[in-house]
Design a protein that fits this description.
about 325 residues, mainly alpha, 14 helices
């Protein structure tokens, strides 16, 4: 509904209200999604595949918008473009929720009352550290969506010189395809992460990616040319696809938060991650691009520091009690 309101707004205030409503609904969706999936999934293998598909669909949506913008935006205007780019994706999930899903989906794991109250030590510290790490990751990953148009605008203004006008500040035509190319980078990296799951430890993989990000953002700071800007943003989005899926394995892990506080821990860490992503996008809109890139570089260093303080991550392994309940669930189905 907020998307439709956005397409027929009369003024800026109505537009802002529609975006606020959309953000509120996304927050509810994120919280419910972690709990729903964790309760309904029947094995770690199915969970990994589900998270991979979910991530790929999300990145395809980002790429879809850029390609549609190249094809339709100048022909039909931004109001109709919002409807055309979102309604085909919004309607199918509504139909599926009412027609395809029931209260119980597939062979669920039934937990006893004793197990449902399981807790973990230092719950607040675990949640805070994971949320901070997620915030740094989303800051570096989400900012590319606005940073690419900002860098394109900067190079267009430099090239136009004294003859620059309002047209060079707009991202349009083939430039939207460049944005789509950058957004596409997260898809192959997500597939790669799924393939190497369990072969490389969580902290080791995240640490290597953080070091790559440090070098990549340092190169981006040079702002030598548009080609370098696109390449470095492509790399940033590629590594974001790896780190985002890798941290999702922990966000959906009841061993990390404990079954009793899982909903609170996963939703809090997810909220901190979304705050990081929104902060990155806001900085691109209101701060100099060099300041944004330098902040992303600093947050890459912060990621390494946080990773050193997270020995409690179980590298995607199930707890002993989960294995026992999984076996009981499989036997009951027989």
């Amino acid at each position: 509904m907020s998307t439709i309101v956005c397409a027929v707004v009369a003024d800026f205030n109505t537009l802002l209200l529609s975006r606020i409503l959309l953000g509120f609904c996304l927050g509810l969706r994120h919280t419910l999604l972690y709990v729903w999936v964790a309760e309904m999934v029947s094995s770690q293998e199915i969970l990994a595949k589900l998270l991979m598909v979910q991530s790929i669909v999300f990145y395809m949506g980002e790429m879809w918008s850029s390609v549609l913008g190249f094809l339709l935006l100048e022909q039909i205007g931004w109001r109709m473009f919002i409807l055309c780019s979102t309604l085909p994706i919004i309607i199918p999930p509504i139909v599926m929720l009412h027609c395809c899903f029931t209260e119980k989906v597939g062979p669920q794991i039934e937990y006893s009352d004793e197990k449902e109250t399981a807790t973990v030590p230092n719950f607040v510290g675990r949640t805070t550290k994971l949320g901070l790490l997620f915030a740094c990751i989303t800051f570096n990953g989400w900012l590319t969506t606005l940073l690419v148009p900002a860098l394109i605008k900067m190079f267009n203004i430099k090239e136009a010189g004294s003859n620059s006008n309002c047209s060079v500040t707009m991202t349009r035509g083939p430039e939207l395809l460049l944005l789509g190319l950058v957004n596409f980078a997260a898809i192959p990296s997500t597939l790669l992460t799924h393939c190497i799951k369990g072969k490389i430890g969580f902290r080791k993989l995240q640490g290597v990616i953080a070091m790559i990000c440090i070098g990549n953002f340092a190169l981006m700071l040079t702002q030598e040319s548009l080609e370098v800007a696109i390449l470095t943003n492509f790399i940033a989005k590629f590594v974001y696809g790896i780190t985002a899926l890798n941290i999702c394995y922990v966000l959906y892990d009841v061993n990390y938060f404990g079954t009793r506080d899982f909903a609170l821990g996963s939703s809090t860490a997810s909220s901190l991650g979304m705050i990081g992503g929104m902060t990155g996008s806001a900085m691109v809109a209101f701060a100099p691009t060099s300041s944004v890139i330098f902040t992303a570089l600093v947050l890459s260093v912060v990621q390494i520091m946080v990773l050193f303080s997270m020995p409690e991550v179980q590298e995607g392994k199930m707890g002993k009690w989960q294995e026992e309940e999984m076996e009981k669930g499989a036997q009951s189905l027989k």
